[in-house]
Amino acid sequence: MQLDWIWEPILVVIGGTLLLRLAGRKSISQMTLAQVVIMIGIGSLLIEPVSGDSIWTTLAVGLILVLTLIIMEYVQIKSDKFEKFITGQSKIIIEEGQLNEENLRKLRFTVDQLEMKLRQHNVAVISDVRWATLEPNGQVGYELKEEAQPVTKKEFQQLQADVQQLINLLEPAFAKGFSIHILPENKEDIFTEVAEEFPKDNIPGHLQ
């Protein structure tokens, strides 16, 4: 009785797991183009033994693909030019709170896609972003302007100490009463745009 249909799938799973383990632990969203191509190639190869092709040939070809990927990654470490050619480089898409329309157009990256990425990082207003880049793996990196950055614990403790010192100095004024002026809240952000289901008027039409 032929038992190939039992042990071959088991060997495919084990061999495929070892090949992918050797290739690296990055998720799809973190992979470069070369890594995605290799992984797709391995996935296509692994199913071939089940349909009748030689399992050893398949695993050997898969190993060659992985070794090719490792060599390419090693060369990228040694050569910046080769890395830029294979992986690409980051592109600026926001500069000092302003959209870089030229780069967005070249990257075929719409403002809606950019806002989706920013919302995932809890960024509500594009004008709060000092720099934003589209990375080779498709992720958006950003730096907030100084006035929009969240307060650290150290900064908050320092603020508490400064406020307490100011209260001690102005204690007589507190006894007579004082008023606090609160700045109006900015209601227009990329979250309310989603809730209200209509786009902003200040977005260029060709980038929506």
From TrEMBL:
<feature type="transmembrane region" description="Helical">
    <location>
        <begin position="31"/>
        <end position="49"/>
    </location>
</feature>
<protein>
    <submittedName>
        <fullName>Uncharacterized membrane protein YcaP (DUF421 family)</fullName>
    </submittedName>
</protein>
<dbReference type="InterPro" id="IPR023090">
    <property type="entry name" value="UPF0702_alpha/beta_dom_sf"/>
</dbReference>
<comment type="similarity">
    <text>Belongs to the UPF0702 family.</text>
</comment>
<keyword id="KW-0812">Transmembrane</keyword>
<feature type="transmembrane region" description="Helical">
    <location>
        <begin position="6"/>
        <end position="24"/>
    </location>
</feature>
<feature type="transmembrane region" description="Helical">
    <location>
        <begin position="55"/>
        <end position="75"/>
    </location>
</feature>
<dbReference type="Pfam" id="PF04239">
    <property type="entry name" value="DUF421"/>
</dbReference>
<dbReference type="InterPro" id="IPR007353">
    <property type="entry name" value="DUF421"/>
</dbReference>
<keyword id="KW-1003">Cell membrane</keyword>
<keyword id="KW-1133">Transmembrane helix</keyword>
<feature type="domain" description="YetF C-terminal">
    <location>
        <begin position="78"/>
        <end position="152"/>
    </location>
</feature>
<keyword id="KW-0472">Membrane</keyword>
<dbReference type="GO" id="GO:0005886">
    <property type="term" value="C:plasma membrane"/>
</dbReference>
